[in-house]
Design goal:
The protein is 20% helix and 31% strand. Helix 5 crosses helix 6. It is built from nine helices and 21 strands. It is α+β, with helices and mostly antiparallel strands. The chain is globular and about 65 Å long.
């Protein structure tokens, strides 16, 4: 296997750029990927530099491909409930919920964060999947009155232990009161935007949802200026940090071929009390059976490995055991760490496997998750509110 370094991505009109594309280019981003038919920043500096940026200071991640599917109307709450495994009656206005959307067979179609903006208006912040079309397909023969559309919002994540200092500099002290998985409106140059206490870093952080793309440059620069005293810098998602935290990536670590119990997300299937939803009958059956596969962490021997481009095969005693899904080198652990799906009998911590890597077979040992805990949200909040 050969890593495809030096590959380029051509820009074309059918791929959206998002509100922060020009600012990303102006600040040095030259690596891009496509996510939800939108260009997304792939890196401003080396992965090592960006890892330390988000774990020590604060990083601005322009994740323009994180689209918001808006569901509104008199039956919006009932319709969102029919889509997801979470109990939406327990999601209040101003609250967010990490959720799963499953197929009739119980496979994971998407893992959005649900934001409840109003009683009858929701955003589903989606991973790289056409959730808008799925929702519209479900609604075709539904008697429920809902409107489904792309909200036209671009997202920038402000992540890292110093992010509260940056955000309060720009939006005021009231941001210090915003609890984990809550959202609030804010004003920027006379424009109303939304801010949530969420993120994909395993660190303390926020996400900002901008509806007016014309303000993308101004907001990006204002965030950098507000963070000038805490070493703010632009960056991209640190896969090493998210793997350390055991954060899964849809389409890689879980797909429609996996169910929630196999990937350790059974807690998100709220069968007791929640009304009917797509996939409920299948998941009720699955809950009673031991999973045939499990998602596990792994440590891989040897020198630092480049991230995998494909799913790498895992074997045990010469027999197929599963596949490695995500890989990164952890600077703090000084080890190659990975996520993978393996047969249940091979999932015990300490089990030795063999993985086929860029430079040939290497030993891998099953490890518990997370490798490193997520940053303690409220502890980080208290320390940074004091300017420490």
């Amino acid at each position: 296997m050969i890593p495809h370094k030096g590959a380029s991505l051509s820009f074309q009109p059918r791929i959206r750029k998002g509100a922060f594309f020009d600012a990303s280019w102006r600040h040095g981003c030259r690596r891009f990927s496509v996510y939800n038919r939108t260009y997304i920043a792939g890196g401003f500096a080396s992965p090592l530099e960006e890892y330390w940026q988000v774990t020590r200071d604060v990083a601005l991640w322009p994740v323009m491909g994180e689209r918001q599917v808006e569901i509104s109307g008199p039956d919006a709450a009932d319709f969102v409930q029919f889509l997801t495994t979470r109990d939406i009656s327990r999601c209040r206005v101003g609250q967010c919920k990490y959720a799963l959307i499953t197929s009739p067979e119980g496979g994971i179609l998407c893992d959005p964060i649900i934001l409840r903006l109003e009683e009858d208006r929701f955003w589903l912040s989606t991973s790289d999947v056409d959730l808008e079309l799925w929702a519209k397909g479900v609604a075709v023969h539904s008697p429920m009155q809902v409107k489904i559309r792309d909200a036209g919002v671009s997202v920038i994540q402000v992540q890292g232990p110093k992010s509260p200092r940056l955000m309060t500099n720009l939006f005021g002290e009231r941001l210090l009161k915003l609890k984990y998985y809550r959202l609030t409106p804010a004003d920027f140059q006379g424009h109303r935007l939304m801010i949530s206490r969420t993120g994909w870093s395993g660190e303390f952080g926020y996400e900002i949802y901008l509806g007016d793309a014309c303000l993308g440059d101004a907001l990006f620069d204002a965030l950098l200026q507000a963070g000038s005293g805490c070493n703010a810098a632009p960056g991209a998602v640190s896969h090493a940090r998210r793997i350390e935290s055991g954060i899964l990536s849809w389409g890689v670590d879980m797909t429609p071929q996996e169910n929630p119990y196999e990937v350790g997300l059974g807690r998100l299937v709220e069968l007791d009390g929640a009304p009917e939803f797509v996939g409920r009958a299948a998941l009720e059956r699955m809950r009673e059976l031991p999973p045939a596969r499990r998602l596990v962490g792994m440590r891989i021997e040897g020198t630092a490995l480049e991230p995998n481009e494909d799913l790498w095969p895992l074997t045990r005693g010469g027999k197929t055991a599963g596949r490695l899904t995500s890989l990164a080198y952890s600077p703090r652990l000084q080890a190659n760490i990975a996520l993978g799906l393996v047969a249940a009998e091979d999932a015990a911590a300490g089990t030795q496997l063999v993985v086929d890597t860029w430079d040939g077979p290497r030993k891998a040992w099953v490890s518990g998750l997370p490798f490193l805990p997520k940053r303690q949200q409220e502890d980080a909040h208290r320390s940074n509110s004091k300017g420490q």
